Amino acid sequence: MGDISEPIKKCILILKSAKSDTEKFAALFMVTKLVKSKDCNALAKKALFEAIGFKFLKKLLTGNNIQDDCPPSVYKSVALSILTCFCNEPELSTHPEMLANIPVFLDIVQTSDNDDYDDNLIIISEAYTCLQCIAEHEAGQKALIEVGAITKMSEIYSHQSFQTDEALNILVKLVSRYGPAAWGSDPKPFHALVNKIALDFATDQSERKFELATILSALLYSCNKTTVIPGSSEETWPQSIYKALYDILTSKIGKNQRDPALKLAANIIDLLGVEWTFNDEDNPKKFFLLLLQLCAIEVRMQLEDRSFKQAFANAELITACFIVLELSINYMGTDQLDLEQKEKQSVYTSLKGAFNAVVSILTKVSNDKNRDKLPDPEKVFICAMVRVLVAWIAQETTAMREQIYALLPFMFTLANDSFHAYRARKLAEKNKSDGEPMNIEISLLGQIDLLRLMLPALCHLVVEDKARDIVLNLKQEDILYEAMNFHWSIVHYKKPIVPKSERGKVRTQPEPELDPQVLEDMKDSRAAMVSLCNIFMNLTVLAPKVVENSMLFNTLLKFIFNNLPELKNIPENLVLHGHLAVLGLLLLKQQASKVKKNDFSICRYIQSTIRFLWDAYNVDESNDPNALVVSMTYKENWNEIADLWFLGMQTLSGVLTTIPWISEFAIESGWAEGIAQMLAKVKVGTLAPNVKSAFEDFLCRLVDSNESAIPVLKKGGALKMCRNHRLMDLGKKLFGD
């Protein structure tokens, strides 16, 4: 006790030798004075805390077994004023005794609307101070979550008790730290709380309105999306927030009001989608267009003529504007929004100005010699700029080409680093769920897969000669192939292996449903693989010489041979099935010289590809038994599949010329005969010209490559088929002139 002053040592002695609660309580008045003195360092506070003993303080707090005439509130007040001083020390605020008594503090603040507290609001205030100090530290946050502090704080705010903003601040700290997991699986407390805050936000006309905007942002950002979104349309908070933000953003406001409003708008659009902005029945586009303009202007103001460091100082606000821009661009790309020409021009001008500013800052960073030594938070901000830029490139295929080409190598470096960090994180999480320890330091960069977000833009870029040369010179296709493998591991999800002890047992329970997050990841990875197939298709068609001699493209072909037959035959996989099948055909055509007839994997691949092409059309599902229709399973996705089917038919025809023995599969599977039987049933003059030429061209190539197709086609009704649909070229091959 060498570092403890004499008066404090004396006080500790008195506390330890006190023979009754009354003596100890008297000594506490000395403590309240000493604990605020200059001499009372962390060591002294700890010694005092242990000399008093939490057991005694708890007795005072709960008013149990105190033999005296004083009202319980006096004991509470003394105990809390001492605890408030102790709580400032991290070691004491996370002391196991302190954490074990969080429920006592919560009880005090929860009873703050009782009459007996009206005269002693200081007690509640000090209980909040203790809770706030505890919530500053990880151990304290964990303890608060475990005792259900989030639900309790939500109730306090919903009932509008005394000092409710303190409850709100503690709540925000907890949900910001623990994210969606903090809310649990029941969305009711979240909705009740946010309904109340949103109503206050809409009706409050003081500066507190903007504090509430910041709090709402934090709550929406941290909510459990899977439980909150489904019932959100039944709640009042989306409409309350809309009304308040509309009022704010259509008024004359300064930076302090605009910034929190834009951040909140970004969070709610990220949660509920762009459709949330169409809340005004009379003029649904008005608020959407206003918000888009404001965010585009804000981006220009924050980035134009600024250094990267200056821009980074406002990273949170700029990123919020990027969210609005990205989601708006993606939404406009779906053609669901009917804009007049004047509105389109105005939006385009605003966006072009914003993206000029983004490209300008990215160019400065890419030319900086220290660009590889940036700290992670700065890298994440640069990734946010690249992310919003590639959303724009995916839709706007002509603007700022030269600057974008110059940026591509830098963007790929960032995207590849981000992909590798993200993949490492996902693998670490998988190992953890399999019971292995997580022994990897997850970087900030691993929170997002920037390469995945670049894929739609890359589909367009590789069509342009200059961009394609950059992609191939950088060997970017190698990383794209890694991405293909990674996303396949998610799409082709395998259930955990059943332990040996459980095998062979009769299963009484139904198969557990897949976690919604796993399903969401599978859906996203399917879309990623479709984009990767489109990129590889464009490279295969536009850089045939590179593909012909490339080991990587040969490996990609083997990947398709091995994996396409394994793809589950479910409706969700149909579009991906088609893309992998047709990419395989394009590669097969280029790499024909490397294909061996005795390779079993090619047999299974061709069978899977024939199945995709065969199942697209039929007459059985038509209302008219003489009409050819797209099959029901394909109909829903025909927009995405139609061009693919025609390309597949055309490419297979070309493959038959270079690898004639593939014709055996078309004949032995019954497909060739099936085409003849199907088309023979179709009424004269009703076969669409493009469908007619796709089938005729394929059957002509089939006959050229394998004469044994002739009797098979004749048996299927080829004569009637050729006559009905005037298939002149095929008729000549089958029946002569």
Automatic annotation (TrEMBL):
Supply one GO CC term from the record. dendrite
Q: Which GO terms describe its biological process?
A: neuron projection development; regulation of neuronal synaptic plasticity
Q: Which InterPro entries match?
A: ARM-type_fold, Neurochondrin
Check the record and name the Pfam families matching this protein. Answer: Neurochondrin (PF05536)
Q: Could you say which protein family the record assigns here?
A: Belongs to the neurochondrin family.
Name used for this protein in its record: Neurochondrin homolog
This chain is encoded by the gene named LOC113404294
